[in-house]
Amino acid sequence: MTAPPLRTQKLVALIKQRAQDLGFDAFGIVRADARPDLPQKLDNVLDRQWHAGMHWMEETRNRRAKPNSLWPQARSIIVLAMSYAPDKNPLSDLAQKSRGNISVYARNKDYHDLMKGRLKEVAGLLARKGQGEVKVFVDTAPVMEKPLGQQAGVGWQGKNTVLTSRSHGAWLFLGEIFTDLDLPPDLAHPQNCGSCTACLDICPTKAFPQPFVLDAGKCLAYYNNEHHGPIPEEFRKPMGNRIFGCDDCLAVCPWNKFAGRTREAKFHARAELNMPKLETLLRLGDAEFRKTFAGSPVKRLGHARFLRNVLIAAGNSADPNLLEPVRDRLADKNPLVRASAVWAARQLAATEQFVQWRKSYTLKESDPDVLAEWGNG
Predict the structure, then answer these.
(1) Choice among 47, 87, 110, 139 that is catalytic
(2) Are 184 and 8 contacting, i.e. CB atoms less than 8 angstroms apart?
(3) Active-site residue flag, 139
(4) All domains of the chain in start order, with CATH
(5) pLDDT in tens, 206-237
(6) Strands 101-102 and 242-244, bridge-based pairing
(7) Angle between helices 335-348 and 368-375 (to 10 degrees)
(8) What is the sign, positive or negative, of the torsion defined by CA atoms of 111, 172, 68, 141?
């Protein structure tokens, strides 16, 4: 393989150093056309309906699998990663039944906003010094960034599908810079999972039909994050105290032992988002909800879906102190909230009390989903 020109090597070194200065923890380059296998990999997921209700994946199928379809002029892709590793293993948080477990990535600022600004700085420098065109993407664009990250040498896709690093474990945010410049690609990262199946074994709903493949229709994070309707009955008990996301298959990865706490302070957990009391969350009005979760990915749930999740966690808590705030939600204006409150009340209240409430609340109830919850069981 012919070595790249000295000017190109210096340009890459300059860009890499700037990325490190801005807080990026990993940097790699891949050719835009380096993964011709991606369309077939994506088809295997979509054709089996493993994307569940995430219809946007189907709608962007052709663009998602082919980086050049996003921008035909792209010749190289720089993949950058930033660690968001927590200061302790979040699996221990699952035992705090009366508190809400928020996925580590959502306990502070939305990483999209922070990373995009810094990616633009790196991309701007590349454009000026390399005299090329650039485009920046962070997760929201239809880019299969994890296989591209493995091809760029940033890490490897684990059996849980998450990009994993020897240095930073499974806690990585990814972003990409597309450019029409011809930059020297890095070597693809080898697979380092070996015979380990910890991430597959720990999944409470067995959402991995096979290693390296996730069935979103069985994933708790899908239901408490992306799903818009009631949480299906079969996933309510397994949800435990998870009110946004699920970190089990990440947190159990043995490579995390090499990951020090993220050096980015804006990814450190905010006190009010670090295992908040379910009682406090149940009493939040819409304005308080938006204020509490300002800047966090949790805010995009909206108040009703957020309460849905908190009510499921309350029902799983076995905490009698939560019965009063749960009852208050039985008359909520939103039927999704009311239906979830009925389920939580059924778990927490004595049978006689629940029967009395059913007689009272169903007199004025007209929503079929809420009535079905009252009549269930």
Answers:
(1) 139
(2) yes
(3) yes
(4) 6-179 (3.40.109), 205-245+277-375 (no CATH)
(5) 999 999 999 999 999 999 999 999 999 999 99
(6) parallel
(7) 10
(8) negative
